[in-house]
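Changelog-adjacent note: as of this version, every example in the card shows the full chain rather than a window. The one below runs 339 residues end to end.
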Amino acid sequence: MDTKGERKNYIGNIIKWAMIIIALIVVYFWKQEDINAAFREMRHHPAWVSILCLLATLLHFATEGRIISNMTMYEERQMTWWEGLKCGLYCAFYKLISLGSLSGIAEVYYISKHDIDPGKSSGIVLVQYAYQKLGVTLIGLISFIGLYLAGIGSIMEYAKWCVLGTVVSLTIVTILLIASAWKKFADFGVAVINKILKKKPEKAKKLTDQIILFNESGRYFFQHKTLCVRVTLLKMLKMALWYSVASIVVHATFPETNVLIPIALMAVSNMIGGVMVAPAGVGTLEFVVSLLFVPLFGTTAATVVILYRFYSMVVPFFIGAIVFAFDKKREKPVEKAEE
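Full-length structure tokens:
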């Protein structure tokens, strides 16, 4: 018996569970006000509101699992939908405790555990980020045009700012797509960074390596046009599922409201909130939602933000903690015998 190995695994499990308990306690006290506010709001609504919001969150990550599986379909070993689902929840755990800074690293680690080269894993994550921005921008743009044509008051009032936010979002997405698909553009970016950071070679190398990897992965991905379209549509569906939380909450108070309007308003809010800085330190999403939702739905706008944050951040964190708790190190694959 490998007593030393068993002892090492035992100690490792103790450390892991200690980390999870500490993380849960920290997040609870850190987000206690948000969690309590969410539960207060839930008590004011029928049970079906909470059930549908939770279902929307689970379907969001089910779609994320499908995206990750699709992104690895041309590797030697494609991740399954179930593995992709767990990967998304695993990253949600890290996203909250690190304010998003470790979610990308966590995804690279989780993907590379499944017989996929770490370099390829990093490329997949970088390309995913570009298509995430593309999906958010496209659904936001379509929603803005639809709301404007429908004559929705808050959109008409802030049309200029919505257009500005749309232009900024489209610019960012365009730059990301060009950088991932055009080698000359990536080479130009590398040259500029090396020139700007010539006195900091280590930092310059780190950035240029990321650009080169992003470009190589992007060009490889673009070879499969059908996959590009499929992933973009899945990204839009994934975000629409979270945006549907707003529709569920609004419909509970204003049942006569078209269910698509709150979804479209939340899509525009996320698109604009992702590229702006709100005044007085107010959260960008909260600021934009208050502008677009309050004229139509009054104080229900606050409930929308509270429950949206709860189901998009807190709930995935707790489910992700379960995935993290039962995640095991993958054993090295046994080499196949030569035939």
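Structural remarks: Confidence is low (pLDDT under 50) at residues 278-282, 331-339.
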